[in-house]
Amino acid sequence: MEITKNKEKVKEYRERARKLVAQMTLEEKVSQTLNWAPAVDRLGIKAYNWWNEALHGVARAGVATVFPQSIGLAATFDEDFVEEVATAISTEGRAKFNMQQEYNDTDIYKGLTFWSPNVNIFRDPRWGRGHETFGEDPYLTSRLGVRFVEGLQGHDENYLKAAACAKHFAVHSGPEDIRHSFNAEATKQDMAETYLPAFKACVQEAGVEAVMGAYNRTNGEPCCGSKTLLKDTLRDEWGFTGHVVSDCWAIKDFHEGHHVTDTPVESVSLAMNNGCDLNCGNLFHYLKQAVEEGRVAESRLDEALVNLFTTRMKLGVFDEKGQNPYDKIAYTEVDTKEMQQLNRRAAEKCVVLLKNENHTLPLDKKKLGTIGVIGPNANNRRALVGNYEGTASRYWTVLEGIQEYLGDDVRVLTSEGCHLCHTKSQGLGQEDDRISEVKGVCAASDVIIACMGLDSGLEGEEGDQGNEYASGDKPNLNLPGLQEHVLETICSFGKPVILVLLSGSALAVNWADEHVPAILQGWYPGAQGGRAIADILFGEKNPEGKLPVTFYRSTDELPAFTDYSMKGRTYRYMQSEALYPFGYGLSYTDFEYSNVKAQALDGGANGADITATVKNVGKTFGGETLQVYVKVCKDGTPNAQLKGIKKLHLQPGESAEVKLHLSREALGVFDEEGKLQVGGKVKLYVGGQAPDARSAKLTGKAVSEFELTIA
């Protein structure tokens, strides 16, 4: 499926690409398969670097809006909003590209081919790159992935606004330190049920222009040269017509790490012959030798180049300036007031209220004389942005957001409290060298905001500068360093305490759950994050986020990190009780469900319809996510799985009628051969949370349950 709607235009592009490739020498062809493709002046081909990033904003090329990290966007559970953010990202991407082209800047991170989104499944909370994803659930990841792609690529009949890339295909989620040699073994059932659906949706529903292979092997085949993944699944089964790019320097892993080949020539031949069109790296230089030795047919190389040049033509870069409507996007569209407002709204929407005992939140500044803001993430910019980030023109940490909000009305005292992960803040100091300051702030404050968690220096990609832990992965789910000790000290003063967690993944904050009256999960909330969190703390905004991942109580509950079986993992397969469940999140207002109905259509042949009335019965404007879960009533099937979402925003007293349709496929499960099986009894659950006992206990609410028999 093509996202470009004009099929005749796409045929025209491909024909133009074929004619262009036919005029090229072998050396010129090979040069165009590298991410830094040089100019071919005699054919009017400008230099182009394919490598660009836009995970949560245009990255690594100067000023751009830095939106909340992807895991935060996932917590919005809001498809429409995710597309709105992606549309803003592509507007800034075009604006920057148009300016860069004007000054002949074709450097890395200056193109329109954005290697985003990351639709891998966050199967284990220890994985350092999990915050780049949309969470642990294949349905949520699929829905948000599709809409992110559509926002990046736009809806023009003839041109792509930008080219999106679904990565990393496939079965990739750590460990980071062995990814260049690791073989991820997954059953056909887990492949079909968990690891492939989001990629399939991005290809078949969104028409994603590119797919990036993963570093690891999957079931013995290196992903960037996997016949099973790239040919049999992606091209033949799903009908993908875009281009495939390797992860960066992944092809040298074929012989250096995976040892499935012996030489660079063998590696590039395996990759190219199995459908990898573009090499992020330099190994495809060996394609000239591979073609000359008969290892790769030149016709296959031509096919790869046609795929690549077709993408560039869809982007309009081979047309006269002005033919492409996106040429008109001016550089002044970057970092506008409207972009900053959208970013602030995104940060507000992604915050999840995990606990709010006795209505501790929101705070009333009129009742406060002094407030303490304590913790290593209180004034930590790095905890705002995550990784693959751009450069904001202004950042607002939690401390800065609170200071701005309170102004001169309330005194704000602050302390770092402790280093994020080390035992002292100053190298020459003694251990716990900020604890007296913590006590002083607590003693003088009416309320304390504790800002704890992680940043991208602790969790991230292997090789990222600053990763303190196992190549970016987490050793456990605990608050690192002295953070819990500082939190216990804060609570010992008997003052109201609110814990603000900034992290890209689940943390086992068991002590805090027992002792701290209010807890917010803010993720990496972007450059405007501190302002958004201040707005929520003081009731200017109402938290509406839901957890896109499970918060476990301990790593002891998890299978081995290297075990890619889904058994015991995520809310769909775990048997233990979560600390905070997937789909959970509180609000300052209250929502009531009524007239909830579920009906199978034609015995389930055409799926099922869900209807419900949702009413805001509280006193505050708020957002609610209606969630539909399906449990197939057979032995050995997963727990109830998310199969439908609808975001609602309601004023106090306002109600909305909601209708959701579930496809027949949503009512089935995959068997051991990876084949979809539909039929028999299924249970449907409808409400504002998952249908587990822990969610019911935390919210004091139950969801509606229906049993249907599907023919």
Can you describe this structure?
Helix content is 29%, strand content 17%. The protein is of the alpha/beta class and 711 residues long. The protein has three domains: 7-333, TIM Barrel (Alpha-Beta Barrel), CATH 3.20.20; 341-549, Rossmann fold, CATH 3.40.50.1700; 591-710, Sandwich (Immunoglobulin-like). The strands form seven sheets. Strands 9-14-13-12-10-11 form a six-stranded mixed sheet, sandwiched between helices. The protein has a four-stranded antiparallel sheet with strand order 18-17-22-23, with no helix packed on it. Helix 4 (79-102) packs parallel to helix 5 (138-153) and helix 15 crosses helix 19 (529-537). The chain is globular. The two termini are 31 Å apart.
